[in-house]
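Researcher: Let's do a round of design. I'm pasting the structure tokens now; please hold your answer until I've finished.
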């Protein structure tokens, strides 16, 4: 009798028909069987079964125009409220565009095939197939400029402190409008989820801060504090007897900023550490072009970004984040009870003190 190969130990491909009114959990577990459908299933299962353990600290990175498509309020906010996201690195654009909704502005479904010259004449802005009035930008700009005139903003601060302070105003504005959804920054404020922007000048928020600096506003972003704070979050997760997981949507600068926390700990500060424990990425970027967005978790091992012993707990799904994120969100909320929020922003001083202590011990050796 022929011995069955160990490579045939996986579940059999099951071609039975999808039943009427199937739920997302059954659809994913039973019918996403191969190719990137299988990678999406494996990623969702990794997130739910391992990353959402209470002692895992989860960082999420955001690139691409996700919030204009409504994914801030529909996906990221419910994940934060459930305690499924503990800290965030985002492009400034995602935070800026999410604020449109919080201050009562509207964005509309449209077509990517409209003549953009006609849109320009009609004062309509296009993000692929999302359309909105030019005044949405002007009103959001004015909202941010009014906020940063306050005395609490007249100093240098990390982007996490900036976003936390801004989040209070955004939250109050969405409450004023009695909106049926919540904003990303408003929810981050309420749940003390620190939000960082790896390139704060590269967005309309940063542009407005720069404009006000011309007229004497003293707000400045301390990007060095961001580097140390994010590294401190990861080190604290490990030293507290837990693990660190990253959930990466897209790639770009936020992906690197989230992953460089481990080289900052190991290479620069020379603190004994081994890398993130869990890695889940959704991307449409290929690895062979050399870009960071497509760099694989196995490549990240060579940099110390991922613990080599944890490489089996890494998944990359090559598909559009606007497809994957709603599915993963629904799957996670259906399969996992809410976790106790870690409220990392409230613990910033304690977390930073731990990083400084360990760095000092290494420094004194030299």
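Researcher: That's everything. Go ahead.
Model: Designed sequence:
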């Amino acid at each position: 009798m022929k011995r069955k190969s160990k490579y045939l130990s996986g579940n059999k491909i099951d071609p039975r028909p999808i039943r009427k009114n199937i739920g997302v959990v059954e659809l994913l577990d039973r019918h996403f069987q191969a190719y990137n459908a299988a990678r999406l299933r494996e990623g969702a299962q990794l997130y739910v079964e391992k990353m959402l353990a209470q002692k895992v600290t989860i960082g999420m990175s955001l690139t691409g125009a996700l919030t204009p498509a409504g994914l801030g309020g529909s996906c990221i906010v419910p994940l934060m409220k459930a305690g499924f996201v503990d800290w965030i690195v985002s492009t400034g654009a995602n935070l800026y565009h999410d604020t449109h909704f919080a201050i009562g502005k509207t964005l509309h479904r449209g077509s990517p095939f409209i003549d953009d010259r006609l849109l320009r004449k009609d004062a309509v802005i296009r993000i692929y197939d999302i359309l909105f009035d030019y005044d949405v930008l002007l009103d959001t700009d004015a909202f941010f400029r009014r906020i940063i005139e306050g005395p609490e903003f007249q100093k240098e601060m990390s982007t996490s402190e900036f976003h936390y302070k801004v989040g209070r105003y955004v939250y109050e504005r969405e409450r004023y409008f009695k909106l049926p959804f919540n904003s990303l920054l408003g929810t981050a404020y309420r749940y003390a989820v620190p939000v960082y922007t790896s390139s704060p000048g590269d967005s309309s928020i940063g542009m407005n801060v720069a404009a006000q600096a011309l007229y004497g506003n003293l707000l400045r972003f301390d990007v060095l504090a961001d580097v140390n704070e994010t590294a401190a979050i990861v080190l604290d997760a490990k030293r507290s007897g837990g693990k660190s997981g990253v959930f990466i949507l897209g790639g770009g600068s936020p992906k690197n900023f989230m992953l460089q926390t481990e080289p900052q700990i190991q290479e620069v500060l020379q603190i004994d550490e081994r890398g993130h424990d869990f890695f889940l990425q959704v991307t449409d970027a290929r690895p062979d072009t050399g870009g960071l967005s497509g760099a694989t978790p196995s490549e990240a091992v060579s940099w110390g970004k991922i613990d080599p012993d944890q490489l089996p707990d890494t998944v990359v799904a090559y598909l559009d984040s606007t497809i994957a994120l709603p599915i993963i969100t629904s799957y996670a909320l259906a399969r996992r009870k809410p976790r106790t929020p870690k409220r990392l922003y409230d613990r910033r001083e304690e977390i930073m003190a731990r990083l400084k202590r360990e760095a000092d011990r290494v420094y004194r050796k030299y």
